[in-house]
Amino acid sequence: MDGPGTITWEEFLGDAEKFVQMSNYISDGWDLRGNKNIPGEVYVVRRQKQYIYNNSNNYTALENNDLNFMLKKEDPFEATCPIERPLITEHHVLWSMSYSVPVLYFNGWKSDFPGINSISMEEAQSFVCDRELKYKDLSQAIHPILGTPFLYLHPCMSHELLQITSKSKNKLVSWLSTVAPAALNLKLRPEYYQLTI
């Protein structure tokens, strides 16, 4: 499927490579994985670890990102003595062969180790800091390349978002900057916007 509101495999791959080059230049941790010779078999990934602490029934970030979400307090002792806890987030950007658009898969773990004490879909929905984003199509699905469960934003709205940003020199960055707030507070550094002009 080609046309306005879509991105071809070649465009996705080119935009992803430029995105990762910029990430390497600014030391932001994004990486390109998979087989570039097979359409749909490459994805861009970043894993981050940050620390959160309990502050009057809410957890607040101490490092890396400014997280504006709340997790439920599990220990009454924490109300008087905040405890730092790790939070690992992992974001994957893939290309959907069916929709010809990028798709954002992500996971989060309230743990020192990925795969342990994962963020639920309900918690992930409560993390959306921009309530007017109206990107409600958050689901859980099997990652098409890795074969493991991930949360993801359904690609149905991506067509509209790509139409809005059709003049961008890097559609992947323009699209990602639009959907990022809906995925565990993913933030893009300003340097990436240089790729779009």
UniProtKB/TrEMBL annotation:
GO terms for cellular component: cytosol. It comes from the Eukaryota. GO terms for biological process: autophagosome assembly; autophagy of mitochondrion; protein modification by small protein conjugation. Transmembrane segments: none annotated. Keywords: Autophagy, Transferase, Ubl conjugation pathway. GO terms for molecular function: Atg12 conjugating enzyme activity. It holds the Pfam family Autophagy_act_C. Belongs to the ATG10 family. This is Ubiquitin-like-conjugating enzyme ATG10. It comes from Apis mellifera.
